[in-house]
Specification:
This protein is mainly α and 327 residues long. The chain has one domain: Orthogonal Bundle (Farnesyl Diphosphate Synthase), CATH 1.10.600. 76% of the residues lie in helices and 1% in strands. The protein has 18 helices and 2 strands. The protein has a two-stranded antiparallel ribbon with strand order 1-2. Helix 11 (195-222) runs antiparallel to helix 17. The two termini are 14 Å apart.
Length: 327
């Protein structure tokens, strides 16, 4: 195990007992008389993943001193919402591999994946009512709506080689970072924190989520396939314009720009190795990592408003170590 993964494991060890409680909530709330719902939902949740969103909520609750049971309920809610978006995403993207095994749509078909995603969304809304807090419901309702807008905007941007960095960031702040932001804000709401602290928590979540997605987009051209559990070049195959490609087109020669533009517009991966070489030679990966580093620093700055304790120290480690991600 690398020092980086070891430090991350130490940070998450703080909430190991809490995560077991969250798993118990997830298992209990997935129970339904419709066997296919349980089968598909358990399939994707059992695949594991980083569980970053519930971990963020639990660590933030620890940092703010909130120890009530609603932290487990809402951590399960954000995981359900995230899982629902994965199910729908994989159908839209026609993905076949996630976390090293066939996607749910590959294993069970598109109709089952879409409908079980709908079930997880509606179950999440049932669960958030249990909190009995209108601000909690408002935060999660807004987050799910913004995520849906981000998904649609990304669909509209597909195969559009003219997308710029601002347009790219708008999508990932909606599609990916919004649920990180909501997870962190929920902890502040549960802890009844001041508006200033609540905003700092939300800022941390948004910045962390943005950095996470930017690094994810780097790994599509520079990752370890075995560790990532997905195929290199998936984004290009799906016609997604990400920051490494945007920067490579800005810096490359006319021929290099044309090569990338044509691949984006057609979703062709015949010249994948050439495009990876262009992305690397133009310094686009380093520039993209620098953009992620700026977001990680923004997250670290937001933590200054929180009390200093083992939980806030763990949140600091998460932001710092994100930049060493290889999967």
């Amino acid at each position: 195990m690398s020092a980086n993964s070891s430090n991350t494991a130490a940070a998450l060890a703080l909430i190991a007992d809490d995560m077991r409680e969250v798993d118990a909530v997830i298992d209990r709330r997935l129970k339904t008389e419709v066997s296919l719902v349980s089968q598909v939902a358990q399939y994707i949740i059992a695949a594991g993943g980083k569980r970053l969103r519930p971990s963020l909520l639990l660590l933030m609750c620890g940092a703010l001193g909130y120890r009530g049971d609603q932290r487990h309920n809402l951590a399960a809610v954000v995981e359900f919402i995230h899982t629902a978006t994965l199910l729908h995403d994989d159908v839209v993207d026609e993905s076949t591999l996630r976390r090293g095994r066939p996607t749910a749509n590959e294993a069970f078909g598109n109709p089952a994946s879409v409908l079980v995603g709908d079930f997880l969304h509606s179950r999440a809304f049932q669960m958030m009512v249990d909190a009995g807090d209108m601000r909690v419901m408002q935060t999660l309702a807004e987050a799910t709506n913004v995520i849906a807008e981000g998904e649609v905007q990304q669909l509209m941007n597909t195969h559009d080689a003219s997308l710029d960095e601002a347009g790219y960031l708008r999508v990932i702040r909606s599609k990916t970072a919004k649920l990180f932001e909501a997870s962190a804000r929920l902890a502040a709401l549960l802890a009844q924190s001041s508006p200033a602290v609540e905003q700092s928590c939300a800022d941390y979540g948004q910045a962390l989520g943005t950095a996470f997605q930017v690094i994810d987009d780097v790994l599509d051209y520079d990752g370890d396939v075995a560790e990532m559990g997905k195929n290199l070049g998936d984004d290009l195959r799906e016609g997604k314009v990400t920051l490494p490609l945007i920067i490579a087109m800005q810096r490359g020669t006319e021929l290099e720009r044309t090569t990338i533009r044509q691949a984006i517009e057609t979703g062709g991966t015949d010249q994948m190795m050439q495009i990876i070489a262009i992305v690397q030679q133009t310094g686009a990966l380093q520039a993209t990592r620098a953009a992620a580093a700026a977001e990680a620093q923004r997250a670290l700055n937001a933590l200054q408003a929180l009390p200093q304790n083992p939980y806030s120290n763990a949140l600091e480690q998460l932001a710092s170590q994100l930049l060493a991600r290889r999967s």
